[in-house]
Design goal:
The protein is built from 11 helices and 33 strands. By secondary structure, the protein is of the alpha/beta class. It has 2 domains: 240 residues, Glutaconate Coenzyme A-transferase (3-Layer(aba) Sandwich), CATH 3.40.1080; 233 residues, Glutaconate Coenzyme A-transferase (3-Layer(aba) Sandwich), CATH 3.40.1080.10. Helix 1 packs across helix 2, helix 4 packs across helix 5 and helix 6 packs across helix 7. The radius of gyration is 23 Å and the shape is globular.
């Protein structure tokens, strides 16, 4: 193992390499190294035509993370799960400047292990019936990207998708400390992510492993249980300062993310519309005592905070980055949890998810149609990608999609336990046909899943391949505020129950 500078690390990356940039969304990214790679390319045009392989692409939506690499001719291809924190890279895909593919985050996480083990790839049900299916777009994000990477296979009379292993030339991972032999500990990282599997993938592919850490310590001083990546797998270590090694892109270091103990009371107030949605969603949580729960990014991430404020218990919240328990963080700290009970590797969390371990999932949605298909991956000129949504929505026993009824400009108020629409959103979210299928409503109905859409003004159920209006907010006119704002067929009974008026007051604050 050699200790080198970030600039030296950048010089190691060669043209046409396949590179894994570590991290999970807005957490745990080796910022100093990718920044140096981006700077080297601007200065001398090298490296060129690299392929990026990532599960949840890291960034802050403002140029950090893998967007350091989002430069024309630096990257020629990217295969990733979640692209939402790296809009620069997504713009290259949208403008047909790179080959670009979106595969399920959990599948890519598992693919690191499969490649390391010398297996041909990953066989999975995840992605069937969605834009990732070869019968649709095969996960391609633009026209220039080639078909033929993903295969649809039948095993024991059941359809699966086969995702091929991808050997890599370099894995850039991150930890907290390295000893002089390259053993990497992660005591201040929000999770272990896929660092071990990524290092094994690069090592067994004949490539190199570069680890960014905060501190170099003498050999023999790290407890073996604390070492998450053995030094045998690590070729180079870069020591960075905290400014280039923040715990998340929102917080340089929050000790709550890596310590045990009861959660400190958090009295943050949520925006009105998100508070209403989260309050109504919590009613579904109380129906599932002892449930293992996943909270998605955006409005669903508020549910853990609100549950804590209301003193609810008897469930376990999880985040796909590897946390069990605690209070999941939101915004640019999504992926962390305050005072988690346990932390495992991301791929192991997806093993649990894919096998049916999630009892209840709260997820966002950008579009939904009359068949219950949902789009979260490509809409309104944005390409956030599908992330872990594909794995979670496919496997969870119950799904609650959470979001506003319309988008862009929606303004609401409450008075006397009633909801008032002050200004309607300009964009309909319930549409005749979604732009892209991220969740297949027909398959969900065939599998007899419980699926709800919780919004600020209505609750809608997917049943028998149809949407059913099952609740409306007090103060809402069904014709004006629901039917005229919805672009899909929906079944409306003769007597629709009202949502609890306390959702629209301060009584539940």
């Amino acid at each position: 193992m050699q200790v080198i500078s970030a600039d030296h690390a950048a010089e190691l990356i060669q043209d046409n390499w396949t590179v894994i940039p570590g991290g999970f969304g807005c957490c745990g990214h080796p910022e100093a190294i990718t920044r140096s790679i981006g700077r080297r390319f601007k200065q001398n045009g090298r490296p060129r035509n690299i392929t990026l392989l990532f599960a949840a692409g890291s960034g802050d939506r403002a140029g950090r993370g893998i967007d350091h690499l989002a430069q024309r001719e630096l990257v020629s291809c990217a295969i990733g799960g979640f692209w939402g924190f790296a809009p620069g890279l997504a713009a290259l895909a949208r403008n047909e400047l790179i080959d670009a593919y979106c595969w399920p985050q959990g599948v890519i996480s598992q693919l690191f292990r499969a490649t390391a083990a010398g297996l041909p790839g990953v066989l999975s049900r995840v992605g069937l019936g969605t834009f990732i299916d070869p019968d649709q777009d095969e996960g391609r994000l633009n026209r220039r990207s080639k078909r033929g990477l993903i295969q649809k296979l039948t095993v024991n009379q059941e359809d699966f998708l086969f995702y091929p292993s991808i050997p890599v030339h370099c894995a850039i991972i991150r930890g907290t400390r390295s000893d002089e032999r390259g053993n990497i500990s992660m005591e201040q990282e929000i999770s272990y992510q896929d660092a071990l599997a990524q290092a094994q993938t690069a090592h067994n592919s004949g490539g190199i492993v570069i680890a960014q850490v905060l501190e170099l310590v003498p050999a023999g001083t790290l407890q073996p249980q604390a070492v998450k990546v053995p030094g045998h797998l690590v070729d180079f270590v870069v020591v960075a300062d905290r400014s280039q090694h923040p715990q998340t892109y929102a917080e340089e270091f929050n000790p709550a993310y890596v310590t045990a103990g009861p959660a400190t009371p958090d009295h943050r107030s949520l925006p009105l519309v998100r508070r209403i949605i989260a309050r109504r969603a919590l009613a579904e949580l109380t129906k599932s005592p002892g449930a293992l729960v996943n909270l998605g990014i955006g409005t669903p991430a508020d549910i853990g905070l609100l549950a804590q404020q209301m003193g609810l218990s008897g469930y376990t919240l999880t985040v796909e980055s590897g946390q069990f328990g605690g209070i999941p963080a939101s915004g640019l700290s999504f992926g962390a949890s305050a005072h988690p009970e346990a932390v495992i590797e991301q791929s192991s969390m997806f093993d649990l998810y894919d096998g049916g371990g999630i009892d209840l999932a709260f997820l966002g949605f950008a579009q939904a149609d009359s068949n219950g298909n949902v789009n979260v991956s490509n809409f309104a000129g944005r390409i956030p990608g599908i992330g872990g949504f594909a794995n979670i929505s496919r496997s969870a026993k119950r799904i609650v999609f959470c979001g506003t009824f319309t988008a862009q400009g929606l303004h609401i108020a409450t008075a006397g336990g009633r909801l008032l629409i002050r200004h309607e959103g300009a964009i309909r979210k319930f549409v005749e046909r979604v732009d892209e299928i991220s969740f297949n409503g027909t398959i969900a109905c065939q599998n007899k899943k419980s699926v709800l859409f919780v919004t600020e003004r209505a609750v809608i159920e997917l049943s028998e391949n149809c949407l059913h209006l099952i609740e409306v907010a007090p103060g809402i006119d069904i014709d004006r505020d629901v039917l005229q704002q919805i672009g899909v067929h929906i079944i409306v009974g003769s007597d629709i129950p009202l949502m609890d008026s306390r959702l629209f007051s301060e009584e539940m604050a």
